[in-house]
Amino acid sequence: MQKHSKYLLFNLLITSVILFSCASKNNENKDLMVFRYNEHKNIGSLDPAFSKDLADIWATHQLFNGLVQMDAQLNVIPCIAKNWLVTDSAKTYTFNLRKDVYFHKHHLFGTSTSLSNQDSTRTVNASDFEYSFNRLKDEKLASPGSWVLKKVERYSALNDSTFQIKLKQPFPAFLGLLTMKYCSVVPKEIVEHYGSDFRSNPIGTGPFKFKRWEENIKLVFRRNENYFETDIKGEQLPYLEAVAISFLPDKQSEFLQFAQGNIDFVSGLDASYKDEILTTEGKLRDFYADDVNMIRGPYLNTEYLAFFMETEVKEIQALKLRQAVNLGFDRTKMITYLRNGIGIPATGGFIPKGLPGFYDTIGFTYQLEKAKQLVLEFKSETGIQNPEVTLTTTSNYLSFCEFIQREIQKIGINVNIDVIPASSLKDAKANGQLDFFRASWIADYPDAENYLSLYYSKNFAPDGPNYTHYSNPEFDKMYEASYLEINPEVRAQLYTKMDSLVMSTAPIVPMFYDEVVRFTRKEVKGLGINATNLLELKQVKKIK
Fold this sequence. Notes:
Blueprint: H1 2-31, E1 34-38, H2 54-63, E2 68-70, E3 76-78, E4 81-87, E5 92-97, H3 126-137, E6 152-159, E7 162-167, H4 174-178, H5 188-194, E8 208-214, E9 218-223, E10 242-246, H6 251-259, E11 265-267, H7 274-277, H8 286-289, E12 292-307, H9 314-317, H10 319-327, H11 331-339, E13 344-345, H12 368-382, E14 388-393, H13 398-409, E15 414-419, H14 422-430, E16 436-442, H15 449-452, H16 473-484, H17 488-505, E17 508-521, E18 524-525, E19 541-542
Parallel strand pairs: 1-10, 14-15
Antiparallel strand pairs: 2-3, 4-5, 5-7, 6-7, 8-9, 9-10, 11-17, 12-16, 12-17, 13-17, 18-19
């Protein structure tokens, strides 16, 4: 009896080990089909008409498509529109749609509204785009993306597979605007059924479909088995079975989960972990080299300080002092010590590296003695012996402002720093209440016109993005001419001239052009990088 019990116990132990081993392998295989990332900011809506913040854009990009999309090199390429024709002096765009694009399955697409009819779907047609654009313009909806259609005169479905847009005037950046998530196609019957609850019941055409959302806790997407795009070998996309998004509120906790292998990637370089993972030269530390990959490249984001040009503060009114601030600090040193080498010192203008029109020598370099001389000339000309300015910032950028404060004080300018909440800074700069403030501009669409619009005199804040109230008739003339220039090389030359003109009067202090930095686990393959920092998951695989 004892012998039999011993054998029974041994067999149970062996069986348990086998079962545990099989379960571990199954879990591991299952894990390889799920891409996991964290959003430390809550996602506000899964309705593409409200995809304003990056967190929302990353999520809705997995669920929705538009007429066109952008590749990693910022070229506009086909999506639901297989091709298009531009006519009428570049004012009319005629899109020919694919006929094999289906909305995600939903019972409302069926003939019956019974919940059992879950496998119903239908193809996308041109009238769906007409409805989606009408919705974007609907004042009652109040989409933050309504401005995208500001230059559109009219649009219409010519037939089921042809959609036409006519502009009020030529606008070379228009195709880039159409790549924004605001311009995604949505199905009328689903949107009108859910109303405002479409934000949490999204139905699109994207590579993934909505599964579950516990706000501030977890968001899950599943593979869209009817997705229309394939890879270069003709294999259907996406490769992954699911995307799982968590909502840990701080970047330090997010990085800890990444280091432990519980999430697959983190984006950006936060102060809480930058020294842990990177050397001061921007290299991955040896401790992480076996498990982590780092990807980096230009990001269409210019970080800068701005002067309000209609200020009554004499120090800021003076061109020499604005130039002295630009010349008086070492941008390379700032990037090395505060960002571990991540970022490109801004020695060009406002247009960031990566966009046509960028030119890296039209701005300012570190010239300490020249900066000191300009300050001495200012003192002599004005009689102000102790020039002083107040720089307003948020706590996230305090270290950069303190670095500049220390450097600028060496050339003879006292800098006071005022730290206020981000929402307060946003309102105050829009209403001309700040004389000198930190700001950044991330491209809404990949064309330098988007950056130069901040210096067009008809765009004065709060009605537009010209927060400095910079005004120059020559600039305005070139800006308006760029709308009519369809030759991209000539347009880029115009952009450079405009940017150079802005820098000659120094209404801003460009600090650095940002870089996209992504850290992934080694098993993640196919997660590329792009200058708009768009999260593209349809070609991602996880391979052990």
